Amino acid sequence: MLRGRSLSVTSLGGLPRWEAGLPVENLLLFEVSWEVTNKVGGIYTVIQTKAKTTADEWGDNYFLIGPYFEHNMKTQVEQCEPVNDAVRRAMDTMNKHGCQVRFGRWLIEGSPYVVLFDIGYSAWNLDKWKGDLWEACSVGIPYHDQEANDMLIFGSLTAWFLKEVTDHADGRHVIVQFHEWQAGIGLILSRARKLPIATVFTTHATLLGRYLCAANIDFYNHLDKFNIDKEAGERQIYHRYCMERASVHCAHVFTTVSEITAIEAEHMLKRKPDVVTPNGLNVKKFSAVHEFQNLHAMYKARIQEFVRGHFYGHLDFDLEKTLFLFIAGRYEFSNKGADIFLESLSRLNFLLRMHKSDVTVVVFFIMPAKTNNFNVETLKGQAVRKQLWDTAHSVKEKFGKKLYDALLRGEIPDMNNILDRDDMTIMKRAIFSTQRQSLPPVTTHNMIDDSTDPILSTIRRIGLFNSRTDRVKLILHPEFLSSTSPLLPMDYEEFVRGCHLGVFPSYYEPWGYTPAECTVMGIPSVTTNLSGFGCFMQEHVADPTAYGIYIVDRRFCSPDDSCNQLTQFLYGFCKQSRRQRIIQRNRTERLSDLLDWRYLGRYYQHARHLTLSRAFPEKFHMEPTSPPTTEGFKYPRPPSVPPSPSGSQGSSPQSSDAEDDDEDERYDEEEEAERDRLNIKSPFSLSHVLAGRRSSTENTRIEFRPGPTG
């Protein structure tokens, strides 16, 4: 992978201008992905969040290509006629020859144009296109692999469309970025047919890497030892692996999303990525500086309400001294680190009990699994809580009226008579209704595979059953969160804002949007040095822990050592005072600028520059350069206390609302925040030059001057 200095972004209207060096009016940019308007996984988030910044720069010259699904078209796309003549003529040609191509604006931020192909409508060409693929790269697709067959149709339609576009482009150069192996066939066929396009292939995770890690293989320590063909064949994905590898080697420029995935791709796909393009988010800043802290308090109160119901009859812990932790994502027990997390929670429970801590930790597992329905005991808990609330409210109204009448008469009410016997009876019945013989359930739903479920099996082994003596309580919520849920009526973003810490100790995580989302919302998180996000933060932040990013070493440590390190992170977090957590959340939220597409977009800019220079060397050229990087720039370690919240603690946990008066003098938030703002303003520099020859008489040379490195 190329390394070196990076882009200096010029500003237009206060926003970084990604494509400052490209004559975008003379270019067409296409992005191809199976997840355009079609949510399957994390690539959908990448494309959706990046669309606004890309559309702002490229305007009507930016198009997304994806599959057509009627339900997605009706709810996400506003149909319209293409303005671009080349796109319109390409669509007309394909529709006349038995295809069905739809066009419109995707109803997301930026409203980018989308071109959608109806896969089923063109399935009659499948056998012919299988022959075309075989002639292009000698890869055959089994008839029973429905997904691969769909990708062949999608790729063939993409290549056909790109040919028609280039035939009518009127001298405009075409850049096409393909995401993942699902879009790769379009790249392979386009290159085999020698279409005049500049191609970029981006892998967000290698096919074989995901399969191997799911099999609990020591993946990263044996990267150079795998027999790739044998492993792919044994898993019956050899044809898919060949399509992925062919796509990688056909592309002018190969990119991936993180340093750790770049190492993986070099061994699995036998090509070193040219550029690493980290994933970003659309970061929205609040006009009030600490509004995110207010949102945390508001949504934490809603989570507390759920906990009151779930633990009714066993609510012998102080909710003001209770921390809410969570893990969320696909139910991949080992890949997502649920195994090491549960083991660490068992050890954390021992430490908190041994030190007689008054801190309680409630941990949520938000991982969708097969269920029958809600757990009856869980529903009953919320019903009991609501009944108690109604009872308390009615007694309060009655009490308030009597108090009001007494004060109007100028009397001090007799507190012994202000509640009558009926009131006492109602309250006693309410108390009796909160008694339960069983322990609070560890899951909110009835699991279909209760006996073999990995999380429940581990809970049985470590013995965390939400007993009174446990300081760590577990709640498995095997369903995505929804504001319409009768149990926990919160959207995912609201839930994250209400928690204190997100824990994602993943073993296989090419990027990791969950900790990134926590960061932009000002919520500290745990990640690992095997996730792209963790590597990115290690590179950019001198002391990640001080900024609320705890990075567990899962690459160079044994599983037991990694588990101990995670336990110490969690225990240190439990020892923080309320003030220290507030300071840490402020610092975490300031890191959100690092994850903004307005900054990370420059990596995509470099990939486009590079692919143009390789595809059209006579028109564009780059002098010997290196892609964007941030070597030499890091968020500095905060000089104020607590520099590392866990490092400034006593030997046992403090109460959550304890405060250290000395910290008032040693922590100047405004000064620290201003220093961080200055550091992020211009952390990058560029040392490459792109020349674009627009005509035989006009040569335009664009130079990027190195900016300060912070």
Please give a structural write-up.
This protein is an alpha/beta fold and 710 residues long. The protein folds into 3 domains: 24-276, Glycogen Phosphorylase B (Rossmann fold, 3-Layer(aba) Sandwich), CATH 3.40.50; 290-314 and 322-375 and 441-590, Glycogen Phosphorylase B (Rossmann fold), CATH 3.40.50.2000; 381-439. Helix content is 43%, strand content 15%. The protein is built from 23 helices and 22 strands. The strands form 5 sheets. It has a 9-stranded mixed β-sheet, sandwiched between helices. Strands 16-13-12-17-18-19 form a 6-stranded parallel β-sheet, sandwiched between helices. A hairpin with a 6-residue loop joins strand 6 (101-106) and strand 7. Helix 3 packs across helix 5 (146-167), helix 6 packs across helix 9 and helix 20 runs parallel beside helix 23 (669-681). The longest helix is centred in the middle third of the chain and has 33 residues, at 376-408. The radius of gyration is 29 Å and the shape is elongated.
| Number of continuous helical runs | 23
Main sheet, how many strands, which sense, barrel?
Answer: 9 strands, mixed
CATH superfamily of the largest domain: Glycogen Phosphorylase B
Structural class: alpha/beta
State Rg.
Answer: 29 Å
Strand element count: 22
Q: Low-confidence parts, pLDDT < 50 over ≥5 residues?
A: 1-18, 643-665, 681-710
Shape: elongated
Helix content: 40-55%
CATH topology of the largest domain: Rossmann fold
Average pLDDT score? 86
Q: Judging by the overall fold, what is the CATH architecture of the largest domain?
A: 3-Layer(aba) Sandwich
Strand-residue fraction? Answer: 5-15%
Question: How many domain units?
Answer: 3
CATH class of the largest domain: Alpha Beta
Strand order of the biggest β-sheet: 5-6-7-4-3-8-9-10-11
- Termini distance? 24 Å
GO molecular function: alpha-1,4-glucan glucosyltransferase (UDP-glucose donor) activity
Biased composition (Acidic residues): 657-673
Enzyme class: transferase
Protein name: Glycogen [starch] synthase
